[in-house]
Design goal:
By secondary structure, the chain is mainly beta. Helix content is 13%, strand content 46%.
């Protein structure tokens, strides 16, 4: 009998903060959207070009919610071109790129359409193609992955501080009598 691989899904909230390390982007606000198939990244000044006989695209990052995100120019190979229906119902041809998203400390190769999300609250949208068989959405929560990341960072820092503490350092217990005298 063939073994069935059990899929363990993680809970994700309606929004989270994610990393795209290949693009130098960290703690970027992302909306989780089960109505969108493809994930999307807010960009502007999109310019296609050819490099070594392949289609590439150059774009700038910009979003009002992340001042550090603005102005960075990125060039990547074009993975595909797709017609995508926007939230307003209009179809537009978009460039699709591939980048790695980090959620819950794990890397997920993801396809992103390059879009103008300037009127949206989040510069990134996480679609069903990324979520499928990996996550279930609890719309009452936010930043589940980000909070877990920050807790792990804090615990690692505390552990490091404890390891670097002088073992001969005297820890005064308020119930101990003072050294060299009585109370």
């Amino acid at each position: 009998m063939a073994k069935v691989k059990k899929v363990v899904k993680r809970m994700i909230g309606r929004r989270d903060r994610v990393d795209l390390p290949e693009l130098g982007l960290f703690d970027i606000d992302a909306k989780v959207d089960t109505g969108a198939y493809t994930s999307a990244l807010h960009v502007h000044k999109v310019k296609p070009f050819r490099k070594n006989g392949e289609d590439w695209v150059r774009f700038k990052l910009k979003h009002h919610s992340h001042p550090g995100y603005a102005g960075q120019t990125i060039s990547l190979p074009v993975h595909a071109h797709k017609y995508i229906r926007s939230s307003s119902g209009e179809e537009e041809l978009r460039f699709i790129i591939r980048a790695t998203v980090v959620l819950f400390g794990k890397k997920f190769p993801t396809e992103f359409s390059l879009a103008d999300r300037s009127k949206m609250d989040c510069p990134m949208l996480l679609g069903r193609k990324l979520l499928y068989r990996r996550f279930f959405v609890d719309v009452s929560t936010v930043n589940v992955s980000y909070n877990e990341k920050k807790t792990k960072e804090k615990n690692a820092l505390n552990k490091l501080n404890n390891e670097n503490r002088d073992p001969l350092e005297v820890q005064n217990d308020p119930l101990d009598p003072p050294i060299g005298g009585s109370r």
